[in-house]
TrEMBL record:
Pathway the protein contributes to: Quinol/quinone metabolism; menaquinone biosynthesis
Entry protein name: ABC transporter substrate-binding protein
This protein's record includes keyword Aminoacyl-tRNA synthetase: no
Record keywords: Lyase, Menaquinone biosynthesis, Signal
Signal peptide per UniProt: 1-20
GO MF assignments: lyase activity
GO BP terms: menaquinone biosynthetic process
The organism's taxonomic lineage, starting at the top: Bacteria, Pseudomonadati, Spirochaetota, Spirochaetia, Spirochaetales
Amino acid sequence: MKRFFLLLIISMSISISLMATGSTETISRDAPLAPVRIALLNGPSGIGLVRLSIDNPFPGTEAVADIQLLGAPKVLTGQILKGEWDAAVLPANMAALLYNKGVAYKTAAVTGMGNLYLVANKDVKINSIADFGAQTVHIPGKNTTPDLITQLIAAEVGATLHLDYSFNPADLAKALAGAVVEAAVLPEPLATIALKSGQDLHIAADMQALWKETFPQTPEYPLTVIVVKSDFAENHPDLVDLLMDSVEKSLNWVAENPAEASGLIKAVGFTLPPPIVAQAIPRSNYIFLKGDEMRALMEPYFSSLMALNPEVLGGALPGDDFYN
């Protein structure tokens, strides 16, 4: 069991890496006396929250934010396990897995819906998930969100797939760009990076559309969430509320202003190329949901994952105290 959990953490770290690139950089606000520590990833999930690094997330209070931009997903996972962050962004199923392992964090809001695309050679035509079976589809890591979503859709319709997990996320985008592989399920902005490679590639399938077609009763699935440390949430509910207001404003601003956001991310230390970011943002599906709306979205998704493989959630559905 311990070995499985270790392997699962490694897989989830790969999943987080789908949201992060580059090395660790600090974008802290000036000399916080009692900083609220917030971890962003140097990837699409962090891009949506970019305004937290230039706006005061706690207006009208003396609280200050210590915001750090992390490029190493394994580092973030280890620090979350140690409770070193007051708030951080994680894949939804990773948050549930850590909860079931007793890590004291609560989920405060969904920050991103699905942003997965099957990118393939233009000769590859996909009309349904069943068409995936005609060829090998590359997936960036076992038990990552691209893997789980692909498997859930295939299981629901009874499709047989030929999946290959040989490449990590960044190398898989390069393999597509170099015509080493013909088809891969990638998140944004890796999908855009591959599409801009100059190769004869296209989006053969929008995984969100396939999900909606397959699960019409739950037409969307959560990709990323922001979690807050349980004792921070209990001792400072007012600050959590202010932080969530700032998160919502940032996500909305980025979604509505991709060109301006792509310029801003470079200024605060993100390493993704701004032109790629500008094109990827409209397909990144940033959203802000909390409270009952958040829970109504997450619970059916978790139930589907439990039916597919309970171990990806740590063996159980999260309890009421998982939700802030």
